[in-house]
Amino acid sequence: MALSVSGGTVFAILLISRLLENSMLNAEVKEGEILPPTIHRLMKGYNKYLRPFFDNGPVTVGMSLDIASIDTISEINMDYTATIFLRQRWTDERLVFEGNKSLSLDGRLVELLWVPDTFIVDSKKSFLHDITVENRLIRIFPNGTVLYALRITTTVACNMDLTKYPMDKQTCTLQLESWGYNINDVMFYWTRGNESVSGLDTLQLAQYTVEDHYTSVSEAVYETGNYPKLVFHFELRRSILYFILETYVPSSLLVVLSWVSFWISLSSVPARICIGVTTVLTMTTLMMGARTSLPNANCFIKAIDVYLGICFSFIFGALIEYAVAHFCSLTHLDTHLIMYGHHMHDLDDEMNGIITTITNHNRAKRRKDAAAAVAAATPPATSLELIVSPSSPSGSEPQPEASPPKRTHWCLTALATVRKVLNKLYCCRIENPHHIDNYSRVTFPLSFVMVNLLYWTYYLYF
To answer: Global pTM?
Structure first.
């Protein structure tokens, strides 16, 4: 019983397989009737491991590109991501057939044909779209020409010069080479020259505009030989409007805000210190935020770094200006107090000198009157005695000494002069410290305008 069941199962399996073979043969016959000559005849004796014209020189492969989109351009990683349609054309004499219509085949049949081993130079990562099926196209023309198209998304390295960022212009490339076939086996060329690449005219980018693009043909030289190479160049100019609104205008307004302190009194220490410190800290935060989207490379001193450094210098200079003006005002006040004290001391000395002189004069007058009275009361003396008088230096009464206030007055005057000279030197020859703010109200804005003119002229035209 078991043997009969197993024999029936085997018979059923053989019957089903036979029916499947018959259905496949019928389908092949119908397909052959629809597409004469059949693909089977074209594939008969075809070796996909041998290139066309294997013994008759190199095979020429024409290339064309359609840029569908450029998704991202990264300054940090120095690369760009693009989705492209890559089309390759070549002639295979083994695929010539009679007729006047081309054959569009399923993309999965590419496994049966020879295709160029083209790769993208400097590609970091790439993938072929496969939704809903692999995005490939194979079309064979009666003269043996094969059209092979792919839809690829690739991330390609792009060396960038960021010294003029954000007023920079970058030139990126897309290079196509043959991996294993050298110039003796395969030759690449652009099918329509510079017009072989399309799609850039209608491309919309976030921060860039495409200024120019062109193609070139060259050879890649390696240790293993020379290989065909096609290069597509495109120039991108960055749109600066975003950076003007995001960085340049706020930093300039912070500089203008720091100038408000020039119109505040020197005695308002909290107000001026608050404005100076606040603007410095805000400028530091703005500088840190501007660097977040840029590579941390010391080799690049970017244009935006130069401008932010200029603004920071002006803001910090306004804070230093108040420190200098405040110090000069304190020094100026101390000097006036010292000069006032010296002046009052000089007045006291003069008053003491005048009083001493009047006292000595009155005393000498009284002595002279007393001596005259004594002389009138006594008899006349000899001529020698008449010569001696009370006012004579040889008399018993000494003459008053010269008063020293004149010498003291001269020393104090010289010391005050020296201090005034030192005060002028320390305060930059500004007798009134309030004039420092008056000068700063003019010099700071004019200097900032001049520096801006030099900055924008250099980075926009040089």
So the answer is: 0.70
